[in-house]
Design a protein that fits this description.
The complex is a heterodimer.
Chain A lengths: L2 H13 L2 H36 L15 H11 L10 H17 L9 E4 L2 E4 L8 H22 L3 H32 L4 H8 L5 H4 L1 H14 L24 H26 L10 H8 L1 H27 L7 H31 L1
Antiparallel strand pairs in A: 1-2
Chain B lengths: L17 H5 L1 H15 L23 E3 L14 H5 L5 E7 L12 E9 L8 H5 L5 E3 L14 E2 L1 H4 L8 H18 L1
Antiparallel strand pairs in B: 1-4, 2-3, 3-5
Classes of the chains: A mainly alpha, B alpha+beta.
Chain lengths: 361, 185
């Protein structure tokens, strides 16, 4: 390597914003581990919520309040024998849970988890990627999640799994439509697809849910369906399809599927909080004034806490509904999606458009 | 058709109202019901720490009794085996030798006494049939076992601890019910 080459390489390397890369890497690692941790404790919370609603106690043996239960469950899943059926498509069989997990994790990239923090004079935004098509990105990734279910069901080479995967696929596709339509009305109000703009519009203002209650309701119902949560958990209907798309899965591959569901729940809670409930906005507080008072870092911490409180509330709502109402029948599910939610979302869209036009005049 | 009980409710066949067809309000009502249960008293009993109080007529595992001096009461008369509807009890009798008077109360005793706990229905008829007050049902549960032969309880499993050597264990084995009986006597 001669001198010129060396300097060329050196200047290229210098041209990178290394701090930026490191900052994003740390953020990614942080958010991924937080999602994993939340998913772990969601399994615990799910059992606790179910228990208290049924006058039981739930896990209380492993650690105080059973808090070590997720670790024990995880260890159990790792220790279990891993079975790959003879007649399955081996590569796809392994790819399925990976895809489910990947899609679940990727959505978190565009969610703003808080304001900026001041890190030794460098302003770091608590959002991995502030792209200006944030919502479209979420939709793209969420619809990829169905590949995990579909490939898993297909590769198992099992009729029940395939049927369940088909149901799952059609369900997710059906509910993506009203979900998108309900969001269009929201986007008319905010005028931006960028997640940080949507949150920014709600900070110190009115949360979007006030303007769009119907839109939020539709979005909530669709989010339940997209996450395959009861009452829309038809892909894993254990009593009609004996366990659905992950029937042939064992050990940690099954764990991945179940885990992906919990991460999905976490992320969709975060999305709902961001879009409709002000994101990291602290309610009844003037954020800008408070920032001047306590500084950027403490503010970011508080904002993150506010977002997490909203997320936890949504997760509890998910669980509460799950342990209250029974599963829909498949035709009822389709009926609700296509004949009720789509027209409702369209009407919501038209009314919003009319109001926006009328007010602008 | 005549109703079997007075609790029968006629099925409602009214068409659903608009609120019911919207379903959301009904979901909300259901959620309120589950919410109420969060604050209700838990039905669970934390088993190893808490135990359920037994009813006074509870019949658990059998115990072969001894008298106050620690001698076995059983004379192997076989009345318990005859009374047993499940035919769970078998025994072999033997004659007391000289020098064994501190072990057995009567001249005849049970050399082998077995109860098959898989057959036993814990009816307590053996207890009622015994003329010597030798067998009665204690307040212990039938424990689990991995093998069938583990459920055939022989004399070492059944005999109550010696009241002279192990007075505390003897008391424990007697249980609350026997203690009460003794107090009444």
């Amino acid at each position: 390597m001669n001198k010129v080459d060396f300097y060329n390489m050196y200047s290229t390397l210098l041209a990178f914003d290394w701090l930026f890369l490191i900052e994003k890497l740390v953020l990614i690692i942080g958010i991924v581990s937080v999602s994993l941790g939340i998913a772990m404790y969601e399994t615990w919370a799910e059992r606790k919520v179910a228990a208290v609603m049924q006058d039981r106690r739930g896990p209380n043996r492993a650690g105080p309040l059973g808090l070590l239960q997720p670790l024990a469950d995880g260890l159990k899943l790792f220790m279990k024998e891993e079975i790959i059926p003879n007649t399955s498509n081996r590569m796809l069989f392994i790819l399925g849970p990976c895809l489910a997990m990947l899609a679940a994790m990727m959505t978190s990239a565009v969610i703003p988890w808080g304001g900026k923090i001041d890190f030794f004079g460098r302003e770091v935004s608590l959002q991995i990627a502030d792209i200006n098509i944030g919502i479209l990105y979420i939709f793209a990734v969420v619809s990829m999640g169905i590949y995990g279910i579909m490939i898993g069901g297909w590769a198992s080479n099992n009729k029940f799994s395939l049927m369940a995967a088909l149901r799952g696929a059609s369900q997710v596709i059906s509910y993506e439509l009203p979900m998108g339509l309900s969001l269009i009305a929201l986007l008319m109000l905010t005028g931006s697809l960028k997640m940080s703009d949507i949150v920014g519009g709600q900070i110190d203002g009115v949360w979007n849910v006030v303007y769009q209650p119907l839109g939020f309701l539709i979005f909530l119902i669709c989010a339940f369906a997209e996450c395959n949560r009861t009452p829309f958990d038809l892909p894993e209907a254990e009593n009609e399809l004996n366990f659905g798309y992950h029937q042939e899965y064992s050990s940690m591959k099954l764990g991945f599927y179940l885990f992906a569901e919990y991460i999905n729940m976490f992320i969709s809670s975060a999305v709902m909080a961001t879009l409709f409930f002000g994101g990291y906005d602290i309610p009844f507080v003037n954020d800008a004034q408070l920032t001047e008072k306590i500084g950027l870092n403490w503010m970011a911490l508080l904002q993150g806490g506010a977002l997490f409180a909203k997320v936890v509330a949504f997760i509890l709502l998910f669980m509460w509904v799950r342990w209250t109402i029974p599963r829909f029948r498949y035709d009822q599910l389709m009926h609700l999606g296509w004949k009720r939610l789509v027209p409702l979302a369209l009407i919501n869209m038209i009314v919003t458009a009319a109001v926006v036009l009328w007010l602008k005049k | 058709m005549q109703a079997l009980t007075s609790r029968a409710k006629p099925v409602e066949r009214k068409p659903m109202t608009i609120v019911e067809r919207l379903y959301l309000w009904n979901i909300f009502k259901g959620m309120m019901i589950t919410l109420k249960h969060v604050f209700k008293k838990k039905a669970t009993i934390n088993y190893p720490e808490q135990t359920r109080p037994f009813s006074p007529v509870f019949r658990g595992l059998h115990v072969l009794n001894r008298d106050e001096e620690g001698r076995e009461r059983c004379t192997a008369c076989g009345l318990c085996a005859v009374a047993c509807p499940a035919e769970a009890i078998t025994m072999e009798a033997a004659e007391r030798k000289a020098g064994e008077e501190n072990l057995y109360r009567e001249e005849k005793y049970a050399a082998r006494y077995e109860i098959n706990m898989l057959r036993c229905i814990f009816c307590g008829l053996c207890e009622e049939a015994c003329p010597k007050d030798a067998i009665y049902l204690s307040e212990t549960f039938a424990p689990a076992n991995y093998q069938r032969k583990g459920f055939i309880y022989g004399k070492p499993d059944l005999l109550i601890p010696d009241p002279k050597e192990n007075p505390e264990e003897y008391k424990q084995a007697l249980g609350n019910r026997a203690n009460k009986e003794q107090q009444a006597n």
